[in-house]
Amino acid sequence: MAPKWRELADKLAERIRTGEYAAGQQLPHIRDLVEAGEGSKSTVHAAYKALEAEGLVTSSRGHGTVVRRQPPLKRLGITRYDKAKWRDGDEVAFIADRVASGRTHQRGEQTQTVSRMAAPAIVASAFDLAEDAPVYARVRLIKEGSRPTHTLTSYYRPEHVEGTRLVDPTPGPAGRGGGFRVLYDAGYEIDHMREELRARVATPEETALLQLGAGEWVVELHRTVYTADGTVVEFAVGVHAATRFAWSYDFAVPDSAQEDPR
Amino acid sequence: MAPKWRELADKLAERIRTGEYAAGQQLPHIRDLVEAGEGSKSTVHAAYKALEAEGLVTSSRGHGTVVRRQPPLKRLGITRYDKAKWRDGDEVAFIADRVASGRTHQRGEQTQTVSRMAAPAIVASAFDLAEDAPVYARVRLIKEGSRPTHTLTSYYRPEHVEGTRLVDPTPGPAGRGGGFRVLYDAGYEIDHMREELRARVATPEETALLQLGAGEWVVELHRTVYTADGTVVEFAVGVHAATRFAWSYDFAVPDSAQEDPR
DNA sequence: TAGTGGTCTAGACCACTTC
DNA sequence: AAGTGGTCTAGACCACTAA
């Protein structure tokens, strides 16, 4: 026998999935459910808290509890990095960081700050630098419309980007073609990359920034970008709301027996 | 000001991370903390529940609350599919589904059941079949030692595997080289694949099976495996404890302007 | 039987929003 | 001021484990 709060949460979740409670709609007030005999206030509240941790609803004091709009899952494939998009295209800004969704870019969908700092441990390791070596950090919060989707922090080695518009501290997108185009213009054409993904609980800051429910999880993505000769020209950390994305990768089955020896 | 239960949870989490409470060790009993003035039983319990949802501890009635052993993060890269391992090697079983960890395979680290069934929607879509078409499902629970790490369900088209040892309902691994070797022997050499990842809350069944804490998340991985001519020979769904794995993918930056036209 | 975590209640009070 | 969700308490009781 599942606990009462779990049963209530499941019942409400079911009604949300069937559309009986539509996106944006208010769930019954806690005190109403108490009066309706669903249990004490604590019990009903526990159910609501579970729904929030599952990303189904958001609660706020004074307002109430509303069913969260479930934006369609974004599918991120490697074609989002297509050279043609940032090298030849004339689309504005950070295309590679967005999903090719057919929507045209809106101003204000990205905020960015650039700063020079001592490399954190992970960054230093990615660039094979000493831990106190200077790097540029470009922090962005990417939105789609008014809804934040993920954060992305790119790190660069000073000698790769000094003097480019990437380190111009003016807020706003990096300009036509985004960061990869800037690197390309500076003589560093990106060639291959590695992405590493892991999931973890969101920090309180991330919960606020990405408008998550308490207890929701995020996926942290580490991207290391190389030129053809193996130089690391960008290391980036993305933090994505775990429920809102899916990643897909296509690759050939490796065969170490057929690799050409060096 | 964070709530009392959150502050207590953070304090305990900090002590776990610094090793003051070591893996396998018991946390103070709830009633002891109540007596120590950390709050009422409900408050302390809320803190413990948060720690459990974050994967730091496991609680059980009658026993107590112990710090969960944090196995080193498994890094899954595409080299785990190396043809040399399952085609030429003489290692036993399902190498492709395990991490190359240097440990030798132990018997009993995998349980499997094979059944013939009507294709569920996702599976039918992956194979481009009708929804009621028959497929073989091979369900496995993969363990490392006594600790379950993930589940993996592989689906096959009957005409690809009928008569092979893959559909032999005898429990146990699929034999030398695992499923890919069986397909290879049957004339279907795997060539490339697609993996798609997304995170979600664990179902109660998964929570029990994978020994998760209540409220922990899982990563669901969908693997579609193709032969060189584009035939889908396997579709597999893996469910992994989100905290215990990291996935990494290496790939070349695509350039649609340079693709050879067909 | 004793001790553990888990559930549930009734009620007080707090923080925040809207009117 | 009224109404919302959120926190906290004290205590009763339940489910499970071990000796």
Task: Please provide a written account of the structure.
2 copies of one chain form a homodimer. With 262 residues, chain A is of the alpha+beta class. Chain A contains 8 helices and 10 strands. Chain A has helices at residues 4-17, 30-35, 41-53, 83-88, 121-127, 158-161, 178-185, 204-209; strands at residues 57-60, 64-67, 74-76, 110-118, 134-144, 147-156, 190-201, 217-227, 232-241, 245-252. In chain A, the strands form 3 sheets. The first copy, chain A, has a 6-stranded antiparallel β-sheet with strand order 4-5-6-9-8-7. In chain A, helix 1 (4-17) packs across helix 3 (41-53). The longest helix of chain A is centred in the N-terminal third of the chain and has 14 residues, at 4-17. Chain A is elongated, with a radius of gyration of 22 Å. At the A-B interface, helix 3, helix 4, strand 7 and strand 10 of A face helix 3, helix 4, strand 7 and strand 10 of B. Strand 10 (245-252) of chain A pairs antiparallel with strand 7 of chain B, so a sheet runs across the interface. Chain A binds a DNA duplex (19 and 19 nucleotides) through residues 3-5, 29-31, 39-43, 45-46, 48-49, 59-65.
